[in-house]
Amino acid sequence: MFERPAFKTLVLGVGNKLMSDEGVGVHVIERLAEKYKLPAEVQVLDGGTLGLDLLYYLEGIENLLLVDAAETGKEAGMMIRLQDEQVPAFMSIKISPHQMGVPDMLAAAKLKDVYPKRLVLWGIQPELITLGLDLSPVLASKVELLADKLADELRTWGYEIFPAA
Fold first, then answer.
1. Three-state SS for 119?
2. I need a labelling partner for 100 at 20 to 30 A (CA). Which of 14, 17, 43, 54 fits?
3. Alpha carbon 164 to chain centroid distance?
4. 2 in a domain, yes or no?
5. How many structural domains compose the chain?
6. Rounded to an integer, what distance in angstroms lies between the CA atom of residue 147 and that of residue 36?
C-alpha cells in the first residue's frame, strides 16, 4: 500500500488559475516554493479546485496555512489574516457539486476528525474574476508580499525558512 510521507504542516494554495484573480492562492504558493527552501516537515500543495478531495491531505496535519482569494467587500488587493475559529467552516447550499470551497472542506474536516490544531488563512480581495490565466495587476503586485507573509507565518511556528539558492 502507498504510504504518504508524514508532514506536520501543510501550506495550501486554493483557487482556479483559469479564472484570473480566483487563482491567486496557487500563484502565491508557487512563488513561496520558488523563493524559499522549506523544511521537510512542510508540504506545499496546489489545492486548485479540489474541494473535499483535499481532506486526504489533512490527515495527520497539525498546522494548516491557507491562501486564497477572499471576498471581503474591501478594495482589491486588501489582505486579511484569519486564525483558527475565525476561519469559516460550514457546509453551504450549492447549485453544483463543483462549488465546494474552503469552508465546506473545513466543516468536513471537523466531521472526519482531521481538523488541524492550528489554522491560518491569508486571503486577498480579488479585483477580476473572469476567464483568463493572468492575475490583475493589483493582485500580481501582491504575490511576492503574500509569499513572504506565508514564510513569516511558518517562522512564527518555529520553522527555519531560508531563501532558495
1. strand
2. 43
3. 21
4. no
5. 1
6. 9
